[in-house]
Automatic annotation (TrEMBL), chains A, B:
Gene, per the UniProt record: rnj
Record-listed Zn(2+) 1 binding positions: H80, D82, H83, H146, D168, H393
Name of the protein: Ribonuclease J
Cofactor(s) named in the record: Ca(2+); Zn(2+)
Superkingdom to which the source organism belongs: Bacteria
SUPFAM superfamilies the UniProt entry points to: Metallo-hydrolase/oxidoreductase
Active site: D200, H371
Lineage, top ranks: Bacteria, Bacillati, Bacillota, Clostridia, Lachnospirales
UniProt-listed InterPro entries: Metallo-B-lactamas (IPR001279), RibonucZ/Hydroxyglut_hydro (IPR036866), RMMBL (IPR011108), RNase_J (IPR004613), RNase_J_2 (IPR042173), RNase_J_b_CASP (IPR055132), RNase_J_bac (IPR030854), RNase_J_C (IPR041636)
Localization terms from the record: Cytoplasm
Cofactor annotation remark: Binds 1 Ca(2+) cation per subunit. Seen in 1 crystal structure, it is not clear if it is physiologically important. Binds 2 Zn(2+) ions per subunit. It is not clear if Zn(2+) or Mg(2+) is physiologically important.
Length: 560, 560
């Protein structure tokens, strides 16, 4: 496992995060040395609250496109959307091989299939403990634990030393599937000497240790034991295969059949089951169409929608819009999840609705995080003793909290590096310095459009959403600028017109007078007329209603 | 204190919640007997996420308007917006006297002044322990504790028995200002016999006791002690006068001058100080304009914006848009608050921004709730032993959790009443029954408009916010339906037009062809033409972009 890479004079290894450091999501980091670039992860982020109508956000990879000849491949740490979700978009521009563990690759392949990219993409499944050579880098996959199976940390051997990238991780001494995190290997590398550790910061603000996934299994068993009558419906994250396994185990133990509901849940379970990451006893899984053949106390539904997503299965069940399942008294609904920040209200709304339908709802002690808390972060530092600490994965507050932990662990303050996306960090001769900046940022995806919605469009959507709009249309004669028709006012999202007929009619008169005055004064410049309409109407409406609708004058011209 | 009210045959006392039972906020409950109605509280609620552009929501008081001759007055439990905020709107329709404690009345008067309603509104300040007679009701004010001073519970003496309404409350044995909650009086009433208790459910899901406000004072003292250099900026709720008092105490103790920032903070502190609810040592308060005369380590700012509100002082300081204060390294910012559900992300965003500016940010152990937890709720039941429990103030999940506590306290299940807004609950001869329904609901206020924005307008705003709109304009001849101008397409919030010129031009051609076909086919019905335009364009756009903008055809007609 000795690395032999030739060290070049006058050049260090560059670490270039292209996303993921300003908020949760969109994780992608390039490592560059000489003529080699490798890219760790390629995630998307979900739109911020002010990105109205946007489906998802992907990273700007201009830097990779500009250096396409150097790029050797994507190395993926695990199968969550914030680490793989941008692949289908980015591969169209940067078509290089993907390296990942088996389950991660299974999930990626499903995604590529949907985008018709499976054939055109080279892929290689890597096992924990195995290493690959990409250009001048050697990359070793090290087993970790996370809220999705088959997560990996990476030891990246560079000419300047070893950089460890943990990916998202936690330490689970008693995982549900497979081995515990390979702490021995972290220790071994630490003994050897580690240049830098880039480590998950998500839970850096939380003291102590994250509980083992197995503790949730015990809670679920307990809930099944206490609720012997009625259906049990468990909502959780589709990708948490170990969680699903434990729910299935409890179902089997208590003689209940399992129904899986929600598209993403069905997909992931079928991938995990096919690849051997989940064991489903014979005849345990039944189709939703056969549900009616079983009494309620022999049924468990495992469903999506634990985040209160309006279109997910659980919401539809709660609102009686699901084609097969409606919530009824006697049902027990378990949220095996906690709300992702920003989803608290949506989750609370659905909990209220479920209670209203007469169900019992359980949402406490039924979830553990997939991320390392403070003591776990400290343990990794204790084992690896890196020269540099680079907190990653988290909002700025989490990176700061992580930095404080690193400092406590004896890493000098100037060796703790909080980077920004686009930074080019050079590590050379055991010194670290941000030496430049490359293009970076989020590209918004709306429907099929990638990048065609920008700030102007968003600002318009924002304005329309708050106050609606008033459209003023009029037709002028091309020859003598005579008013042939209009001005008429059409409104949308402004007021309920039937209730406000007077207001709208008065507004029309005010605009009419202003337009007439323009035309009488021989103003023939359309942009001038439009600006008079805008000012007049906006003044009038503000005075009457204290509102600021968008005002859109449209002038048509006719050849008479 | 003996009540003498004549009991009528065939009639019970009616409890009619007009709001407040479907979500947090908009608390207002009518109590009716014979020809007397009293109204407890008159609050607003803040708009739900899907109420785009709405400023606030007030209750429908049609029932009170229809029975205006019976209505004797508003009895207010405390000065929070969700208990007093709708008064300025409702008083215009239901102009009856207001009864409240001194600080509560001070805050109400400030509000009435802003709405020019002070002169036209009769008001009476009531002391704790005092009773008033309103129609056939006697109402006694009982001291409680809450996150605003001068909160009161009400014992409402009715011909059917005593109904206790707690308002929002907690039990604080060591309050910062004034007395602890008058538990003895609750006990005395319990001995006498209580018909029903209507009690705050907000924290019913939380086990244990809510900590005393004084514990926050100790934390703040500790923070001041540990941070002797640099400015300290404390963000908290404007109305929490006791909190502000404790911050001022710490400032005084550690030799710092206090600056108050944010309009609502300045208002409340001036009202509280005038009425003697806050003690500010001489020369402690300074004007923000004199800030520059003091070194940083002699300054404390108390500010609004603890909920991440974009326009509040703290946000503006963090974003360098505040006219006097910008956050800088060395500042310590204390969030003496916790995020109200739904505000988590906004608060996190501002914490990130403050860290980015180099400040230290403290947000743990610096706040206590103003609401009773499970053990406090149980204590009130133990003291009052009511025949009926009516959980109020909270989302449905909280009312359910409260109901479980009441059951544990020995109240029979069928004597625990979870009401819905608009229900008419009759209590008669120690029986309770919902006997009817009155109009109720939220009326949306947008600018000056009260109720002129309804579901159609909101649906339009929602649609506009997600996908923007396409306007198709064309001019026809009145005589022969000839196309004189257009069709032109104008878009807003759809795509960035310069990037999508081709798409827009092709869309125009598609619409043009469809319109020509209509006209060639002698279709002269405008609604038919509009529907063809809508269908054609919407199909085309969906195929090209997988988006669904609003499509708005406008036809003009010219006399040629």
């Amino acid at each position: 496992m000795k690395t032999k890479v030739v060290k070049k004079e006058n050049e260090g290894v560059k670490v270039i995060p292209l996303g993921g450091l300003e908020s949760i999501g969109m994780n992608i980091t390039a490592f560059e040395y000489g003529d080699s670039i490798i890219v760790v992860d390629c995630g998307l982020s979900f739109p911020a609250d002010d990105m109205l109508g946007i489906d998802l956000v992907i990273p700007d990879v201009t830097y990779l496109e500009n250096n396409i000849d150097k790029v050797k491949g994507f190395v993926i740490t695990h199968g969550h959307e914030d680490h793989i979700g941008a692949l289908p978009y980015v591969l169209k521009k940067v078509n290089v091989p993907i390296y990942a563990t088996k389950l991660t690759m299974g999930i990626i392949e499903h995604k590529l299939k949907e985008h018709n990219l499976l054939k055109s993409t080279r892929r290689k499944v890597i096992k924990h403990g195995q290493s690959i050579n990409l250009g001048c880098f050697r990359i070793e996959f090290i087993k970790t634990n996370h809220s999705i199976a088959d997560a990996t940390a990476l030891a990246i051997y560079t000419p300047e030393g070893i950089i460890i990238h943990t990916g998202d991780f936690k330490i689970d001494y008693t995982p549900v599937f497979g081995e515990s995190i390979d702490l021995q290997r972290f220790a071994e590398l630490g003994k050897k000497g580690v240049l830098a550790v880039m480590m998950d910061s998500t839970n850096a603000e939380r003291p102590g240790f994250t509980n083992s996934e197995r503790t949730v299994g015990q809670s679920i068993d307990h809930i099944f034991d206490e609720h012997r009558s009625g259906r049990i419906i468990v909502a959780t994250f589709a990708s948490n295969v170990d969680r699903v396994q434990q729910i299935i185990n409890s179902a089997y133990k208590f003689g209940r059949k399992v129904i899986v509901e929600g598209r993403s849940m069905v997909n992931i379970i079928s991938i995990a089951s096919e690849l051997g990451y989940i064991q489903i006893p014979n005849e345990t899984l039944i189709d939703i169409d056969h549900m009616r053949n079983y009494p309620d106390d022999q049924l468990v539904l495992i469903t999506t929608g634990s985040q209160g997503e309006t279109m997910a299965a659980l919401s539809r069940m709660a609102n009686n819009t699901h084609r097969r399942v409606s919530i009824k008294p006697g049902d027990t609904i378990v949220f095996s999840s906690s709300p992702i920040p920003g989803n608290e209200k949506a989750v609370s709304n659905i909990i209220n609705e479920l209670f209203r339908k007469g169900a019992e709802v359980i949402f406490q002690d039924t979830h553990v995080s997939g991320h390392a808390c403070a003591e776990e972060i400290k343990l990794i530092y204790a084992l690896t003793h890196p020269k540099f600490a680079i907190p990653v994965h988290g909002e700025y507050r989490h990176l700061k909290a992580h930095a404080k932990l690193a400092e406590k662990m004896g890493i000098p303050k100037d060796h703790i590096l909080i980077l920004s996306s686009g930074n080019v960090l050079e590590l050379k001769d055991e010194r670290a310095k941000v030496i430049g900046q490359v293009p970076h940022g989020g590209i918004m995806v709306d429907g099929l459009g990638v990048g065609d919605v920008g700030n102007i469009v968003l600002r318009d959507r924002q304005m329309l959403s708050q106050n609606g709009l008033l459209i003023v249309v009029l037709t002028l004669s091309r020859y003598d600028n005579r008013l042939l028709a209009g001005p008429d006012i059409v409104s949308r999202g402004f007021v309920y017109v039937r209730e406000s007929e007077m207001l709208m009619e008065d507004a029309r008169k005010v605009v009419d007078a202003a337009v007439q005055k323009c035309l009488d004064g021989r103003v023939s410049d359309w942009s001038k007329i439009k600006s008079v309409i805008r000012d007049t109407l906006s003044d009038y409406v503000w005075k009457q209603t204290k509102r600021n609708p968008m005002i859109l004058p449209i002038i048509m011209e006719v050849d008479v």
